[in-house]
Amino acid sequence: MTVDRTFVIGDGLTVPRLSVGTMFFGTTVPVDRAHACLDRAYELGARFWDTANNYAAWVGGTGDESEVCLGDWFAARGSSARDGVVLATKLGARAAPGGSGLRDALGLSRDVVRPQLHQSLGRLRTDRVDVLYAHLDDAGTPFEEALGALCELVDEGLVGRIAASNLTAPRLREALRTPSKHRYEALQQRFSYLEPGPATDLGVQVVLDDDVTELCAAAGVTLLGYSPLLAGAYTRADRPLPDGYGTSTTAGALAVLAEEADRAGIDRGQAVLAWMVQRRRPVIPVIGASAPEQVEAAWHATATPLDAAALDRLDRARRP
Predict the structure, then answer these.
(1) Which backbone phi and psi does 270 adopt, to 5 degrees?
(2) In the Cβ-directed half-sphere of 12, how many Cα atoms lie within 13 Å?
(3) Which whole-number Å values give the CA distances from 145 to 28, 106, 182, 202, in the listed order?
(4) What pLDDT does residue 63 have?
(5) pLDDT at 308 over 90
(6) Superfamily of domain 7-245+269-308
(7) In angstroms, rounded to a whole number, what is the distance separating the alpha carbons of residues 150 and 180?
């Protein structure tokens, strides 16, 4: 028995139960290995791919690499391959020319949204993206302006649907209340089975919490979660939990996770992915992969059923 489900973004964009994150493709993941990952994902049906216009500048890249890597794959595989993929990219967090890092991010003002997208389309070698994220909250640009600029791209056929990332509950509520022809139809936040302590400093990354989850449920906004596997910490002894993830509930939660993973015949990281897509408020995992077998393992995990009792145990164990 397997779980063979899909999700819907907005009024009809059907996406698989897993999103393949390509953050380090073309930088720490060499192009040939990245293309092998994409080939395997395509073969499996994991055809929801996630990139951004600044991946991965902080590891010595320019920010072009991931989009260029995907664009080269599309060019090599032909138009039918592009048509078979739900392609998502992000804008707003790339440093302005001459700038450095997020403090110099281009943001979401009207005069920079369109150029950012056109540059992404050039790197991706495509005439449209299916989902376009506002990568970070730009508190200096009113939502009316940012949403207006993004809506124009949808109306012109350059973008299928708009989405957001890293918004707190108050800011998401404001965005959803802003009059706009098109609204954010998906939200991507940091999310995993273990939760960080409330004082954990994650910089610009915003954890998916209960308030945001309920807002999205009420508004019909599809949820996605990045960093679901905590860089391998669930399965690799050489990968400690990130700072802030050692709380009073951690040991008990990990014990329950291990028990349910063993019962399902998968490892602890895979159990996290299975739990994400089957919980009461599902969250599509955005996984980072550096080898085809990792893509395959993640895809298998999201098809592995967990019964209601297992899901309940997992949910209760992770809470204080």
Answers:
(1) -65, -35
(2) 0
(3) 36, 14, 13, 27
(4) 97
(5) yes
(6) NADP-dependent oxidoreductase domain (3.20.20.100)
(7) 10
Helix axes 268-278, 250-264, angle to 10 degrees: 90
Terminal-to-terminal C-alpha distance of the chain: 33
pTM > 0.85: yes or no: yes
| Angstrom distance (rounded) from CA 152 to CA 123 | 21
Tokens of 157: 């056929």
Q: What is the pLDDT of residues 118-169, one digit of tens each?
A: 999 999 999 999 999 999 999 999 999 999 999 999 999 999 999 999 999 9
Alpha helices in 127-249 (DSSP H): 143-155, 169-177, 210-219
Cβ atoms within 10 A of the Cβ of 193, count? Answer: 25
Domain boundaries of the chain, sorted by first residue: 7-245+269-308
Find out whether 21 and 55 touch, Cβ atoms under 8 Å: no
The confidence score (pLDDT) of residue 132 equals 98
Structure tokens at 276: 């994400």
Secondary structure (3-state) at 19: strand
Count of alpha carbons within 13 angstroms of residue 129, beta-carbon side? 32
Q: What b/e sequence results for 99-129 when a residue is b if at least 16 CB atoms lie within 10 Å of its CB, and e otherwise? A: eeebeebbbbeeebbbebbebbbebbbbebb
Phi and psi, residue 87, nearest 5°:
-105, 125
- Give the C-alpha separation, 271 to 256, whole Å: 11
pLDDT digits (tens, 9 = 90+) for 211-251: 999 999 999 999 999 999 999 999 999 999 999 999 999 99
Nearest to 244, CA basis, from 189, 197, 193, 192: 197
For residues 121 and 156, the answer to whether their CB atoms sit within 8 Å is no
Backbone angles phi, psi at 260, to 5 degrees: -75, -30
